[in-house]
Amino acid sequence: MGRYLERTEHISRFAQAHYFFSIDAPRSIKKEHILESVLNMAGSYVEYIGSQNKMETMEVARFIGLDEFNSSSIKYSVVKARENARGAKDSISSELWESINTYYHYINSMDAAKFEEIGIYEFSKKILEFNSVINGNIDNSLLHDEAWLIIHLGQHIERTTQVIRMIVTKINDINRIPKKEYYNMLELFENVNLLKSTEAYDMSKIFYREVPNVSHSLEFLTLNRNFPKSVVYNLRHIENCLLRITNVSKHETNSLEFYASKLLCSVQYTMIQEIEKEPLAFYHDLLNKVAKLADMLETKYLQY
Amino acid sequence: MEIQTGIFNSYKIDPAHFDEAWTSKGDIRVHYKHLMETFKSLDFEEYNKINEIAKTNLFYQGVTFNVYSEKAEGVERLFPFDLFPRMIPSDEWQTIETGIKQRNKAINLFLWDIYHDQKILKDKIVPSELLFSSQFYKKEMIGINPPGGIYIHITGTDIIKHNDGKYYVLEDNLRCPSGVSYVLSNRETMKKIFFNLFSRYHVKPVMQYTEKLLSTIRSVAPDRIDNPTCVVLTPGTYNSAYFEHSFLAHQMGIQLVEGRDLFVEKNFVYMKTISGPKRVDVVYRRVDDDFIDPLVFNPKSVLGVPGLMAAYQAGNVNIINAPGTGVADDKAVYTYVPDIIKYYLGEEPILNNVPTYRCERPDEMKYVLENMHNLVVKPVDESGGYGVFIGNRKTKEEIEEYKKLIHDNPRKYIAQPIMSLSVLSTYIEDAKESEQRHIDLRAFALMGKDETYVLDGGLTRVALSKGNLIVNSSQGGGSKDTWVIENY
Q1: Which of A203, A229, A224 is nearest to A268 (CA)?
Q2: What is the mean pLDDT of the segment spanning B158-172?
Q3: What is the pTM of this model?
C-alpha cells in the first residue's frame, strides 16, 4: 500500500513540474522531449509508444494519470492501494481507510472530459493533497507497530526508487542538450526542474546558499542525511524500520536486514566526486540494488 | 472594426491614447489576436471564475503589500492584478533591453566619476551645484571603490509608451526598486490559468531571475571570499515592501535579517546565529541610505547596523546597491542622463528621456509657473508617486498652493509635459467590463562582475481609476503580467 501511494505522489509532482517547465523551456528544448522525459520517469514510455497515441501534453497526462490499462498510471496504483487497504481494513483506522477510499473514488470518477476541464495543474495538486492527508492519517491514526513499519518500508523504498529514476531521467535530459550557446541556461532549467520534482528546490538553496548546480543537486538528493527525499535518508529509515520489526541488533550475513545495512553504508560513505565520475552507472547500479532490497522484503514479509 | 463580445462588449477606444491591443480604428493589433480570441470566448461568468482563481492563488501565495496608516501595524492589501497581459514583441523588447543596458552602464560610470575624479563636473556637463545640493549625494562614498566598480547592481527603470508609439524613460530607480516579486508571482498565477497561450506565444520565461540575482550578489563579494555569506536586510515586517524582501530571500535561499540581527566588530559585519557569530560578506539592503548606519547617517535610525559604513569603507563587506546611488536618480539629475550617456560612452541614447524643466533654472521655473495646468510637477526626492502634481486635474487654488511650494524650494521640483501613458484593456469589477486604463513598465536589470542582465518583461503597472496616470501600488495601482513574445 505504501509503495503504491508513494508512487502516485512522485509521478504527479514530476508531471506537474514538467508541465510548467514546458512553458518556460527555451524553444530549443522540444516539447516532445519533455513529454518523453515524463513518460520515462513514470515507466510508461514503451507502453505509450505502443499505444499509438500522439505525443501531446494532455494525451500523455491522461495516459500516466488515468489509463486503467497502463500498469504505471496513477489510477492503477490508487486502485491497488485501495485493494490493499480493503484487505487490511480490520487493521487500519477508519480515518485512513476513508481517506484512501475518497482518493480512489476521486480518481475513478474522473473521465476524459472532466480531466480536460480541470487541467493538469489542478489534477496533480489534488493528487498531492490526497497524499498529504493519507500520510497524515498513517502517522497520526495508526499504532506504530509492525503494520505501520511495513507501510513505511514501502514508502521509503518507493521514494528511493522514484528519486533515483528522476535523477537518471534528468541526467539523460541534460546529456541530450547540445553543448552550444544556451547550454548553461538549459542545464540550469533542467536542474531546477529536478529539484522541483523532488520538492528539494527550496531546501537545497537554503542548505548550500548558492545558485543551484547539478553537482549540488546530486549530492543533496543522494547523500543529505536530513532531507526526507534523499537516498541516504530513506535507506537509513529502511534500516531502522527493519531493525524495529526484527528487534535484534545483529543479523545474519545475506539476510534482508544485513543487505539493507550494507547498502546504506556503501551509499553514505560515497563522495559526490565518486558519483560524478560515472553518474549514470552509479544510479543504475543503485536502482538495481534497491530493487533487490524490495524483492527480498517482499519475499520475507509479503509472500505467503 | 472587430466585433466586441464578452468582457469587451462595451469597450470604448479613446483615440487620444495609444491602446496597446487595439488600433484607433478598432482593429486588434496583430500580436494580440490569439490572446483576444481566448478572452473574447469568455463570458462574464467564465471570466469571473478564472479571475477568482487568480486572486485566490495570489492570496494563498501571500502576494500582499502594507499601506502605512494610523494603525501601528499598517494595513495589508492584496496587490490588485489584472488577467489581461501586456505583450511586447521580442524585437521591440530588444530595443528596451539594449537601451537599459546602455543607460545603466553610463550611470554607473557617472557614479564612479562623481565619487572620484569628478571629470564630468569639471567639464561642466552636469552642474556641480545640482549634484552637491542633492540629499542623496553621500560624501562618505568619496574615494570608495566598490567591488567590480559597480554601484547600481539592481535597477528598476520606469518606462512608458507615449501616444507617438515610442518608449520614454520616466525614472531610473537606482536605490531599492520594488516590484520584481510581483512579476514572478503574477507569472506563476498566469501559467496555471493560461497554459496554452504561453505555449502558443513562446513567452520568454522569468523564473531564472532569482538565480541571476543571487549570482549578481555573490559576484560582487569582497575580494578573496570564495563562498560569500549574503543576506537581505529588511526594515521589518511592517515595511510596505516586506512581502518582496521575504520573497527574494526565500527564492535565493539566503537569510532575511533586520538590523538588530547584525553587528559590527573590528570593521567586520557579523550575523547573530544560534551557533555563534557568522561573518557576512554582502548585504542586499532594502533600507534607505539614511537609515543603514546610525553612526554615519541618521543617528536616530534603529533599522540599520552601527558601524556598517566603516566596514564597507574598509572593504570588508559590500552593500547592494551602493550608498549614494540615489544622487543619479534624483529627478533633476535624470534630465542629464542623455548627456551622461554621450559623455561616457560616446553614443546616442537608445531610450528617450521625457523633456523636463528644472525649476532651479529661473527661465524654466518661469515657464513652469505659467503652464502649471499643462504639466506634471514632481518633487525630485520622492518615490511611490507621492507629491506628484498633475496640472490638468487641479483646481486654481491647488495650483496656486503648489506654486508657493516651488517658489520656496525650486531645487526640489522638476516639471514634465503630461505624457499620455499608453492604455490597455483592464477588467473593472464594479463595471463588470473591460475598460482602457493607463499603464507603465518597470523593467528590472542586474549588474554583476561578469554579466549584465535585463529580466524579460518586467512589471506592468496599471492605474485602476479611470483617467488616472499614477500607477504606483501605494496610490491604488495594480499590475499585469508582461509577456515578451517570440511567436505571434
Answers
A1: A224
A2: 91
A3: 0.89
Res B420: pLDDT: 82
Question: Which of B195, B211, B252 is opposite residue A188, by nearest beta carbon?
Answer: B211
Write out chain B residues lying below 8 Å of A22, CB-based. Answer: 199
pLDDT at B72: 58
For chain A, give the mean pLDDT: 92
> Looking at this predicted complex, what is its ipTM?
0.84
Measured distance CA(B295)–CA(B301) in Å, rounded? 9
What is the pLDDT, as a whole number, of residue B284?
Answer: 98
Per-residue pLDDT, B148: 93
Mean pLDDT computed over B396-406: 88
Q: Are B243 and B181 in contact (CB under 8 A)?
A: yes
Cβ under 8 Å to B: A residues 37-96 = none
Average pLDDT over residues B134-150: 94
Nearest to B368 by CA among B384, B397, B389, B339: B389
A27 lies within 8 A of chain B by CB: yes
